[in-house]
Amino acid sequence: MKIALVCDWLTKMRGGERCLEAVCELYPDADIFTLVHFPGSVSKTIESHKIHTSYIQRLPGNIKAFRRYLPIFPHAIQQFDLSGYDCVLSFSHCVAKSVKVPSNIPHICYCHTPMRYAWHMRNEYLSRFGYLKRKIAEVMLGCIRNWDRKTSNRVTHFIAASRNTQKRIKQAYNRNSVVIYPPVECNRFSVSDDDNGYYLIVSAQVPYKRIDIAVEAFSSGRRSLTDSSNNKKLVIVGNGPELPYLKSMASANVSFIDDADDNEVARYMKKCRALIFPGEEDFGIVPLEAQACGKPVIAFGKGGASETIIGLDRSLPAEALAKAGQNTENNTTGIFFYEQDPKALWEAILLFERLKSRFVPQKCRDNALRFDRSIYKHSMQNYIQSVIAETAHITN
Asked: Are 264 and 162 in the same domain?
């Protein structure tokens, strides 16, 4: 069986790449097609496959700034020749789902989300542009959005990364989908009750992650408004275009680790007090990795986090929160806040400080195990095989 795997780009190991990596293990002879590949930037498992890149890889200038070519992503992704394959499986959060596939070949799209720039997070991406640039970008994104909707019919079967994504697929493309949650490599992590006193963020530094909320919440100005203590520290692991801006607004109790490998990330997680997750994600593997270490998560209570964290609601009445804090039998693994602003986050942190002794590390890990990598691989293999068998039956 000849399989083609398509993804938007291969530049770093994040959640989407871990989804691809697990399927690469299922199909070691599969070919990979992607807009751009930075050699050595992803796992050996992915790198061992034959990787075909688009013409964007060969355009002039620093290829690491490939996102500037967004307007031609739609054209570039359609240039791949995918004839001769028994099945095409795309992993898409941008344009990968829009590859051209021969009509007799099933095309399964594992959709992390419909394109964020064009759909649900359009305003967040435009918010920091000046007036003229924003107007130009609005026109460009409107065209991409229309193209994205039109080319969704090239997909024969959609897999959604979460129930949250499933709703977005229905809204954007009017298509049904099945939910298979992304893989959490729980074996990379072990339960720890170490607490070095810092809160942790592990994230790419891009606007929609809303790391600015946490930086401001931990700054001395915000802290002085809500709490007299000044000993709470925040460690932010990751890099991206927002990093200079975030550093410029950070106070001394906020530190940055521009890059860290998987082992270093695991060490930071095992020694933190709790993970902070201030953005609205399609799914979000990082909160589950933290829970696999036995660590609670303080999260914005929308999107994928609402499916992966068993959370207390900060807005509950004081009596209900007190009762929850006294219940050592509950399976709570975090605390939710529902306004994306520094004050709401800080109040959730203060609530966590009052209740932190009631969070049980093993309960956190048990919750993460529901999303283990082995479950993802088994579900993906069964679904792919069923689609291929269904297609073969129809064509015969």
From this structure: no
